[in-house]
Design a protein that fits this description.
With about 110 residues, the chain is an all-alpha fold. The protein has 7 helices and no strands.
Amino acid sequence: MSLFGDKSEKIRKWGEKGKKDKLVEMLNKGEPKYRAEAATALGKVQNSEVINVLISTIRDSDPVVRANAIESLGNLKAKNAEEHIRRAIESETVPEIKEKAQTALEKVRHGAN
C-alpha cells in the first residue's frame, strides 16, 4: 500500500467519471495493482485515445495488467484492436489471459456483451 492509502476506490471512480488522463497516468506510472485497476477502469471510458493506450498495454510486463487491458478492449468492442487481440492470443503464455483474449475477440467481432 502506498504512503497515501489505497487508491483502488479512487481509480474506480475515475473510470465511472471518464477521467481518462488520470487513469492513463496511473497506468503508466503506478504499481502493478493500480495499473491493473486503471486498465479495468479505462474499459468504461469511450474514447479512441483510451483504445490506443489499452492496445499498447497488451504488452505490459505484468500479466494482470495485460489481462485487464485485453478485457477492457473487449468491453469497449474496440474494432481497431481486433488484430492486436488476435496476436495476443497467439503469443500469450498464460492460459487465463489467452482465454480472456478469446472472449474479448468475440466481443469485438460480434458486439456481444
